[in-house]
Amino acid sequence: MIPNMKKLFSEGLTGKRLIMSIISMILLVGVVSTAAYELTKTSVTLVVNGEETNLKTHAKTVDALMLENDILVGKHDFIEPSLDSQLTNDVNVVWIPAKLVYLTNNGEKLPVWTTSHTIQELVAELNLEVGDHDVIQPSLETALVEDMQITYESAFAVTLRSDGEEKEVWTISTTVADFLQAEDIILGELDRVEPSQTEIVKANTEINIIRVQKVTDVVEEAINFATVTRNDNSLTRGTEKVVQSGQNGKIAKHYEVIIENGKEVSRELLKTETVEASKDRIVALGTKQPAPPPAPVQQVSRGGTPGEWLTFSSTAYTANCNGCSGITATGINLKANPGAKVVAVDPNVIPLGSIIEIRYNGTILGQYRAADTGGAVVGRKIDIFMAERSDALRWGRKNVQVRVVK
Questions:
Q1: Residue 50: its pLDDT value, please?
Q2: Which of 40, 113, 193, 307 makes the best surface tag, with the fewest CB within 10 Å?
Q3: In terms of domains, do 328 and 375 share one?
Q4: Same structural domain for residues 144 and 177?
């Protein structure tokens, strides 16, 4: 019985060893297979947004690698090498996902896909030239994020005229009011600007600041005195006497004056004040009839032939003398006929209507009609009508020869 038991025990040990051997063999094959599998993988470095990850992969192409790592590459993304490139050991695969941002370029809004990291990189990518006076918001150093709103406005030159100066100013498209605020220009209550503050500033716009002042100007002016005549029967007719000398007055005129950029553009009279009243000049005119001549004077004949030359005293008068109506005793209007050759005579010496000749210093002055009389024209005296007062004053008093022609 004991020998049988030993036999059975020996057979049992042999079976266990066989099983263990089989298991060991399977494990060995698995390890070898795993090692072989790993040894056949390709070593790559995947760079995502600047972060590196070392990978081993059986993927054959870049596209397969990205899918293996659950990365979906968009058409705007940056991928290098390209998706269809074959993978090799120690290759760097760089992937930068694109971001969608919105760029408003001088008022035109555009969607932009970009792999740039900052606005400055985006500007370079789009070949935008940002000048010193241009405006871009946010700033160039700002990092890009999805759906970022970016505004770019290019500057241009305008001409600014203000306070006597003209200069060139760079600005962006804006209203005139905003431009003035940016340039620290303050308008007074009456000041104005051209164009108006609501206008849009464009290239080559000329902006003019008009400084407006409203002032009051007082101007004094002289007022000429008036001449007043009064009849005086104590004076002989044809004579006059100054009773009161005239004196000019003075008034003050108040004007509202509008001044633009130092120049007067309008003036409006507000009121007039009397500073000093004028004083009339009063002249007395004689109305007293002259005394009759002491003795009758022989009348000069006016027959069919010229009379003899007789000596007369002569003076001169005008149609506008004080107390003169301008109408002769025979009805001639001397104001309407300034060229009339008329003399005033004593009708007792030379009958009215006569034609006479006057000679002075041997020269015959011409023929005149005896058509007027005068209170002071008595006897051998004549008063010659002259159109201009200055001529009458120059004539003065002269002795002339007179003869009646008809």
A1: 82
A2: 40
A3: yes
A4: no
What CATH number is given to the structural domain containing 142? 3.10.20.30
> What pLDDT shows up at residue 161?
93
pLDDT at 381: 96
Question: Is residue 184 one of the residues assigned to a domain?
Answer: yes
CB atoms within 10 A of CB 73: 17
Q: At 337, which CATH number?
A: 2.40.40.10
Cα–Cα distance for residue pair 11/146, rounded to 1 Å: 76
Q: Running DSSP on this structure, what letter comes out for residue 61?
A: B
The pLDDT value recorded for residue 294 is 46
- 245-257: b or e for each residue (b if 16 or more CB lie within 10 Å)? ebeebebeeebee
Tell me if 339 sits within 8 A of 393, measured CB to CB: no
User: What is the C-alpha to C-alpha distance for residues 190 and 259, in angstroms, rounded to an integer?
Assistant: 10
Whether 49 and 123 map to the same domain: the answer is no
Is residue 259 located within the same domain as residue 320?
no
Residue 1 located in a structural domain: no
pLDDT at residue 154 in the model? 86
Last residue within a domain, chosen from 252, 286, 320: 286
Long-range pairs for 47-54: beta carbons < 8 A, 24 or more residues apart? 47/92, 47/93, 47/94, 47/95, 48/95, 49/95, 49/96, 49/97
Output DSSP code: residue 315.
E
Question: Could you tell me if residue 220 is inside a domain?
Answer: yes
Q: The CATH number of the domain where 70 resides is what?
A: 3.10.20.90
Structure tokens at 110: 């555009």
Mean pLDDT by 10 residues, the chain (406 residues): 54 65 65 55 89 90 90 90 90 91 90 92 89 88 93 91 91 89 91 93 92 94 90 84 90 94 93 92 85 50 69 92 81 91 95 94 93 92 93 93 92
Determine the pLDDT at residue 303. Answer: 46
Residue 214, both tokens: 């409203």
Same domain? 219 vs 253 = yes
CA 142 → CA 33, 46, 121, 127, 300, distances in Å?
A: 53, 27, 10, 18, 126
Kindly state the helix (H) or strand (E) to which residue 112 belongs, with its residue range: strand 108-114
pLDDT at res. 321: 75
What range defines the domain where residue 237 resides?
214-286
Residue partners of 185: CB distance under 8 A and separation at least 6: 162, 209
